[in-house]
Design a protein that fits this description.
21% of the residues lie in helices and 22% in strands. It is built from 2 helices and 5 strands; from the N terminus they run αβββαββ. The protein starts with a helix and ends in a 9-residue tail after the last strand. 22% of the residues are buried. The mean pLDDT is 94.
Amino acid sequence: MDDCLFCKIIKGDIPSARVFENDDVFAFRDINPQAPVHILIVPKKHVANVLEGADAGIMDGVMRAAAQIAREQGLAENGFRLITNCGRDGAQSVNHLHFHLLGGRQLSETMA
């Protein structure tokens, strides 16, 4: 999509701190980190959210990328959080499916 922020980042039109890329997934550091490690994992195919066509292939690619990135970032031993937001009430700020990988410290048990 021409007006999608994440599509522009994936294409390289907007700079990002890339940490991972393959044919299907792009991952980069969040510009407003909520933890010492805060990486956004984005499928390259534009899908608005999990309700809008996130098929098994997309989800598999994202999950495999998340596991690899977590290991590379040193999060595998102590754990991490992987979150996707969906819709306005779910606090989705960019209408392109993405997952937040958070870790590097003890995270709060509350998520509201």
